[in-house]
Give the backbone structure.
Amino acid sequence: MRRTTAKFQTLAPHAGEERKLVAGAVAPAILQTTNFQWKTVAEFEKYLVGDPHTYIYTRYTNPTLEIAERKLARLEKVENALVFSSGMAAITSTILAFVRTGQEIVSANTLYGGTFAFMTQILPTLGIKTRFVPTTRIEEAEKAVNKKTALLYLESPTNPNNYIVDLKKAAAIAKRHKLPTALDATFASPYNLNPVDFGIDIILHSATKYLGGHSDVTAGFAAGTKEMMKKIELYRRILGGCLEPITAFLLIRGMKTLAVRVQKQNENAQQVAEFLSTHPKVKRVFHLGLPSHPQYQLAKSQMRGFGGVVAFEVKGGLKGVKRTVNRLKLIMHATSLGGVESTVHIPVLTSHIQFSKKELKAADVSEGMIRLSCGIEDAGDLISDLKQALG
Ligand SMILES: Cc1ncc(COP(=O)(O)O)c(C=O)c1O
């Protein structure tokens, strides 16, 4: 894909697919091999002097994985990307690549549970402390930064309420203190947000969600400059968070349709959010495309689309939630998001089960909340299902 001016919709199916064609195949080849042979020792020795086309071992890299990486790098408008066996493998390898014993992280406080557990349960055993600041008041990071700080860590939009970080402000603080920034942009996907446009250095994705898009792939990405990816690559190679080539093929296939899927998911979420806002059994609705969302204006200035996730609070607390979820006929009750099928999940019974009452209040998550991840179905069918379930 030589054209550099191509639009996102064109890049998604084509970018990163430059490769030696096997029998003229249109689809990428799955090189399901753990290692590669060399015809001569001299051929192997090319690897030793850093020839990127001499492959050795799939845990290091593999041409099928590189297609996924080149595609994501183009979609995120960055130099390079690394694919991982999960979002958590990408997140943990990235953090470990930038923070040493005795150093600190300043992090936005609304995080995916696995990331929060890594920062509060595992990193302290390595002598690494994390100071948390509010996601929606990222300017407070300025006060939390000190001489030991080695990374500014962010997640935006957040689960389940779609709170967002002011990325320009965050990048400016990091620049003033010469800190690298890492942002988990899973909920946005590159279709709705390119964090690099706002000065963010490292973009992280659970590719298990929108990038894979079909609820059948567990994978992750880190993306950014060549120099930063080189640092992280060492941790992927040594910690072993590499992806299987056959799974990379499924991921590539999913990424080809990212633009059309996410566009439809954005539209569905907008229509569903507007419907829920008028329903007498719904107390509150969180979606970045609703002017009632406290960060609607910021979202408009920062994102190209408002995303496929809608959180809403039903009357009757957890009892009301259980009743509604049990009555859904089309929308599935399942924990993940970003797939072509719509799913709901109950935050207080899953992602937020460890939270105390006080912590739930601080996170603005209530017992009456349902998180809906809109798929690509007909919006009218989704609304009918919610209507009959809310009854
Ligand atoms: C925002 C976010 N980041 C990271 C992860 C972890 O990704 P994975 O399950 O692919 O390891 C998740 C998973 O739900 C997530 O929602």
About this structure: The pocket of pyridoxal-5'-phosphate is lined by residues 86-88, 112, 114, 155, 159, 184, 186-187, 206, 208, 218, 220 (CB under 6 Å). Residues 259-390 form a domain with the Aspartate Aminotransferase, domain 1 fold (CATH 3.90.1150.10). Residues 192 and 305 are 5 Å apart (CA to CA). The chain has two domains: 8-30+61-256, 259-390.
